[in-house]
Amino acid sequence: MKDKGKLLILLLVGSETFFFISLIIAYVYYRNFTNTVDTVAHTLDATRAGIFTLFLIASSVTLIVAKNALKKDNRKRFKIFLVLTVLLGVIFISGQIGEYIGLYKKQITLDSDVFGSSFFTLTGFHGLHVILGLIALTIIFLLSIGKMERVGVAAFSGMDVYWHFVDVVWIFVFYFVYIMPLL
């Protein structure tokens, strides 16, 4: 393969896919196939989470625009849309932090019960992946404005695969954790 960095990202994303599938299956299993009472679902605000989900999805759109600008060597547009991507990701994480604070105030914690632990594990690991992606995107932005002004498409393409993966994972998490209990 010509682009070894992209291959490595695809391998990482493949392994992370199985990790998140396992976490989602565990959450769904406890809710649907045990006698355990779901203490989390009734306290979640699906509308609020849906709004923050839109910010995360929008960040994928701005990242696509940034990548296309980079391909066309439009550095100014690339930087603008890369910063927008980071800002949208930060808004999403801020929403998750706000939700966590609200749940802790309601005494729903990582160690409160099986649903608390599975909810915080699933959404927390996703949040960690978003934060790692934000760090990487910020580094790419800083490289694009400093002495290493020439960020290449190949260097960026691995990162965009990772970011889109994080967005797709959240769509599944959002469905199984926030929407499915309402059905």
Q: How would you describe what is shown here?
A:
The protein is mainly α and 183 residues long. The protein has one domain: Up-down Bundle (Four Helix Bundle (Hemerythrin (Met), subunit A)). Helices cover 79% and strands 0% of the residues.
Keyphrases for this structure?
mainly alpha, 183 residues, 5 helices
> What's the main sheet like?
none
Q: Helix/strand-derived class?
A: mainly alpha
* Integer-rounded radius of gyration: 18 Å
Helical content, roughly? over 70%
- CATH-derived topology: Four Helix Bundle (Hemerythrin (Met), subunit A)
Distance between the termini: 45 Å
CATH class: Mainly Alpha
Oligomer: single chain
Fourth-tier CATH superfamily name: Cytochrome c oxidase, subunit III, four-helix bundle
Following the backbone from N to C, one meets helices and strands in this order, namely HHHHH
Summarize the structure.
The chain has helices at 4-32, 46-71, 75-105, 114-145, 153-179. The protein is an all-alpha fold and 183 residues long. The chain has one domain: Cytochrome c oxidase, subunit III, four-helix bundle (Four Helix Bundle (Hemerythrin (Met), subunit A)), CATH 1.20.120.
SSE blueprint and pairings:
Elements: H1 4-32, H2 46-71, H3 75-105, H4 114-145, H5 153-179
Helix pairs in contact: 1-4, 1-5, 2-3, 2-5, 3-4, 4-5
